[in-house]
Amino acid sequence: MTADGWVWVSLGLLLALLGARAWVVETGHATLGRTPVKVKVLTGACGLAVALVVGLVTANGGARLVWMVLHPVEAQAQQEAAKAAERAAKASAALAPPAAPAPTPTAPAPPPR
Amino acid sequence: MTTTGTRHPGERPPGGAGARGGVPARDVPAAGGAGPSPAPRRPPEVETAVLRTPVPGRTPSSPSTSSGPSEQSQSAPPRRYAEPATVVMPGIPPAARPRSTVGDVVSSRFPEARVARPGPPAPPPAPPVPLRWRWYSPVLVLLALALLPVAAATTDLDALDGWGLAKVLGPAAWAALACAVGACIAELWSPRPRVPMLATATGVLVLCSTGLPSVVEPVARFTTSYVIVGFVDAIAGDGVPALDVDARFFWPAFFAQWAWFRDAAGAGDLDVVLRWFPPVVVLVWTIGVYALARSMLGGTRAPWVAAWLFVGLNWIEQDYFSPQAIGIVLLLTVLTFALGPLATRRTDAAGVPGWPPPHPGAARLPLLRRWMVALMTPPNRPTLPPRQLLLIYFCAALCLIALAPEHQLTPFAIIGQLTLLTVVGRFRGRGLVFVAVLALTVYFIVGARDFWTGQIGLLLGSGDGGNALQTGIADRLAGDTGQVAVKLLRIAVPGLTWLLAIAGAWVYWRRRRDLVPIFLAAVPMAFAAVQSYGGELFLRIVLYGLPVLTILGADALRTYARRKPGREKKLAVGMLVLFPVLVLIRGGNEAYMVVTPEDITMTRAAFAETPPGSKIVPLDDTGPYAMQGIGTYEREGDAVTCKDNAKKTPDDYTRCILDDEPDVLLVYTSTEKQGVVLDNLPPGWSRQVVDQLVATGEYRVRYQNGFNAVVVKTTPTVVSGPAAAAPGGGN
């Protein structure tokens, strides 16, 4: 599975945990000033899942996005340079002479005696 | 129970109890009997007493006959929930009970209450509605529908000019609109308005106003809707969005959805969907506004007025076949949940909104402390069974998650509005905000990674608010007299809408001490910080706030009408004026937004006769030029060197096209009219461009009829085989 796939799986896990917590909270008995143990456990599990999602998202582009937002000038310069390099590569590919024709197949080597 | 229908932390979960519960929750022993007794609270405002049938030997007023907790615990096992609201009238036999009482409804759900608890006496029968009131609205609705085909037949679309659709509509169209408005007013004015009739009249009103172009024009209008259908066509081919063609493909949910619908239906094109999409989607929006207004205003008539006001003030043409149209459906769904079944208030244990001092005479806590306490206090539970609450959470979460890949701006609007409601404690389900933020963040960072890694400038924006104002408002005030007049009206209408809404906010404040609705409408204005979105940003700001603005406006109008008898007649006249103005404003660009069947046929033929890889461009960005071929044909949307500021004269157009060297040039009648009414070019300028191109010898005319033309290069760049079946799908 790709890194992006793990992000989506962790997000699905978190949503499932949030759903389970909502189920427990809404179907349980409300008690003033006291949180049921099941809710506390699920809240902790949600917290862990959030940490997992945040960690995976940070590793899969989040950190880079934050850097780009904090350093917009450098980020735009990098993107412009990348685009220019891509255009140059396309132009050079267009100007390059056509590839040499494939060599004609030679006669098969005689079988070893 | 509070006036907003909420439960307090100490109360039992609902399931037949609550505001409609006959026994107050505090009278029912807690499950297990271990729960702390709830804090003393204000007596419920709407609760009914349960009086038992007199027992021989006991007087009804005897204390032992009361259904207090002690007796209940002795005579019956403790029940989980309180019992439903029932008032027993001793001495009335069950057979004598009238049918239409609350007691009957309750007893049908709770069989044990059926025999012993007859309902309250029926109210005196209402006076019969005069027969004429029953027929006014249906007759007017039928008349309006009957006039629509006549309107379509008598509208001369060839005569469109800068004044747009309003100038070419025949008398039948205006009569149909007047009948639709009359049907709404007649039903609302009747002594007992019928909801089905009001709904029908509203549907006809939408068809005769917003849907009028769909009725009188043979095919869908608006170039952008054909661009979107081109995206659908591109994604239907191989299921892969063409990310290198347009940034909108990074939010592909809408395109994928309709590509799936098209393939599943076996349809070759979406022409019919495109044509009827605007009235249908506006009708769906109107249902959302009505539901919101029922929650916010109450009453039987005001929500309908709010819905009609929304239709009448919605000149922002974002209801074409587009992701934002569906995005607003999802937004309204979530907002309706939040302000309807999930609505609650943050109150103290006594049910008092706000946070009172710790004891009488104590000094008030500092404001910051009060805010913090209010923020940390969870809102009360709405009076809904848990499973209904969970179902609503699920549906709302689904809508919020679906919004992330649907549209760029809409998720921010609903997140802003939900955050506001969360901070002020107005809805239960704060986790929904978390789900929305999470879905949006993960989708944007992971799903749209190529967008922000390649176009960070678009994301960050220029921060030039003045430029955005210039682009969004000032630059649009161009064209002939009709165009300028229509655009001035477009600026005036949102201003008047806001004024009316501010008056409504004042009324709302006087009545409920609540300013949240007007802030709900103002939240989307934070988008003004996102300057990179372009001039349409201001349209979206108005649109996202319009549902709440119109509801507040309806509140203001209701107060105005109640102050003095007879004012409702003035409002009816106002409605009769508002809708023709709406037709004028919405149809103001019709001269260059109209699309004819010939345009579509010509475009399809041009793509079919041109080999893939060729460059097909329109003379200007009008017409259905983008309805297919995305990713298969090269297209810049316009001749790339022809920037708008360079196009001053026909010669400039010719020069730009010769510089750009497209293989095929598409010229539409709408292009010609746009140049005349918007850019003040001389009539016939597009023909002049075509003639100049042909005169150079580099181009020849493949097809020409009136101003419509397909001009092709004499020496095509791409000479591979025919492209009849090349584009994915059949658009």
TrEMBL record, chain A:
Keyword Membrane: yes
Domain of life: Bacteria
Ranges of Pro residues composition bias in the record: 98-113
Ranges that cross the membrane: 41-59
Region entry Disordered, spans: 88-113
Keywords: Membrane, Transmembrane, Transmembrane helix
Protein name: Uncharacterized protein
TrEMBL record, chain B:
Species this protein is from: Pseudonocardia charpentierae
Compositionally biased intervals (Low complexity): 22-31, 54-78
Membrane spanning stretches: 135-152, 172-190, 276-293, 322-343, 432-452, 488-508, 515-535, 541-559, 571-588
Record keywords, A-Z: Membrane, Transmembrane, Transmembrane helix
Region (Disordered): 1-81
Name of the protein this chain belongs to: Uncharacterized protein
Record carries keyword Glycoprotein: no
